[in-house]
């Protein structure tokens, strides 16, 4: 009946208005944090609400001092302060020590049994668990837990996020207020590229798969590929192969 009545439709629309979601417009405007217990280790998971950049810190406890140390490290890395910290009601986050250490930071906690209010952290933790299982299945425990967590965090930050359409690492370090903040991985890679360019047209050693087994092979380093993490190497049969820049070793010519 209501659908057929023009007056009712005008004054009492059945369609609900969509709630407008507010999102931060600056790095460290809102930061989400939570602890997760994996492999008998406590992992502090911190996410920037603007870029969705992820930090993971492994520790033996969940102390407030541990939280303060790494939040301070994040602020120094980006040369700006955290404005709002959104966390649950865990004692490490609601301790007076935290507010004393960061007097300008507002700490907003979730209500008991309302974990959806810190939904971003919960979703990222779920993703971390999934990626760790995937990484473990691929490498069959050849890496220790610290190394696996490092790989998972790097891969997360290097993958386009569905909510922004950008890679978290590209978004967060392109939004530097001082112009001096860089992704540590990019700094290392840039130095490595400069060092490697000295060996153009010189022999390099690299790992190659032959009949399913890894073997050391030698080729001539030609150039760095368009993909900044790969280099082009000319093999003995004159073909060109691409290998990760971190996986080649220059051979000194006497």
From TrEMBL:
<dbReference type="InterPro" id="IPR001584">
    <property type="entry name" value="Integrase_cat-core"/>
</dbReference>
<dbReference type="GO" id="GO:0003676">
    <property type="term" value="F:nucleic acid binding"/>
</dbReference>
<dbReference type="InterPro" id="IPR050951">
    <property type="entry name" value="Retrovirus_Pol_polyprotein"/>
</dbReference>
<dbReference type="InterPro" id="IPR012337">
    <property type="entry name" value="RNaseH-like_sf"/>
</dbReference>
<protein>
    <submittedName>
        <fullName>Integrase catalytic domain-containing protein</fullName>
    </submittedName>
</protein>
<dbReference type="InterPro" id="IPR036397">
    <property type="entry name" value="RNaseH_sf"/>
</dbReference>
<dbReference type="GO" id="GO:0015074">
    <property type="term" value="P:DNA integration"/>
</dbReference>
<feature type="domain" description="Integrase catalytic">
    <location>
        <begin position="20"/>
        <end position="176"/>
    </location>
</feature>
